[in-house]
Amino acid sequence: MRNCVVALACACLLAACAATHHEPAVRALPRDDPSASLSVVWVGHATVLIRIGHRFVLTDPNLSGAMVVVPRVTPPSLRVDQLPPLQLVLLSHMHIDHFDRPTLDKLPRNTEIVFPPGAGSYLHLVRQERKEAVDFWKPIHRGGLTITAVPVRHAGGRFAVDALWNHSAAGYVIEGGGRRVFFAGDTGYDEKLFAEIGARYPGIDLALLPIAPARGGNPNHASPDEAVRIFRLLGARYMIPIHFEAYHSTAVPIDEPRNKLAEAVEHNRLQGRVFALYTGERWVDSDDGSAPWVTRETVRSGHVSQ
Q1: φ, ψ dihedrals at 173, nearest 5°
Q2: Are 88 and 112 in contact (CB under 8 A)?
Q3: Are 274 and 239 in contact (CB under 8 A)?
Q4: Residues 128-132: contacts with CB under 8 Å, at least 24 apart
Q5: Which residue positions in the chain have pLDDT lower than 50?
Q6: Phi, psi of 177 (to 5 degrees)
């Protein structure tokens, strides 16, 4: 047993040394259009800064580096001090790459943290006083936004052994100002489940769906092709992939998920509906009927830089 542990540690360290570093496409916040009621910044991995109207929601905040000995290939695009005031933080599950305590420790004490159903025993791990483990299908209302936790297909727990009894994992439907966003967190493919979410919440404007690290058939992780199938089951208008290109993986090469997603998009004729951002880019959906646009331009000191 000891030899196996040593071998695993050595393999992880070798992987860390071999990993290639990628700079985010953007560091800091890109230009936004305040007149648009919906825009998002892909900060990296499953961390997405969502703006609906004048309210900001941050998903699975992870602004840290390596995950224990697993290197972060592409750093996050933002620091905590670059975040706008947040209405809510949503945690999809307790795995360390999604529930990053060092990041949460740096957020203001008055930040409200929403935990997935069944995660009540983990509330003490954050210093924020406003925190709650919500229930599936039961909406909560905060400052003009409605947040509903929905079931997804993913392993629970945080400390490996607790996954045997704790199966806490959720996606979220985020609504406000006539807009509807679905954030999956991390999930495998489940036709019945995602068809039900799509039926219960028709007219989803944007689906944020994971595409790595799997090639199909993994019960906990959707492949790019499966993510496209989820997108279609949801009946969403647009999709932005998440959960790829952040960490070194021995399961798939770092560039494979993006390439496979492009193939799936072409095969399903979804061009113009799936936006594979690069870390730090902003996607904006204007209200004037024009096509969404993507920017990596940052505004500093009254001028636009790129």
Answers
A1: -100, 125
A2: yes
A3: yes
A4: 128/104
A5: 1-18, 301-306
A6: 55, 35
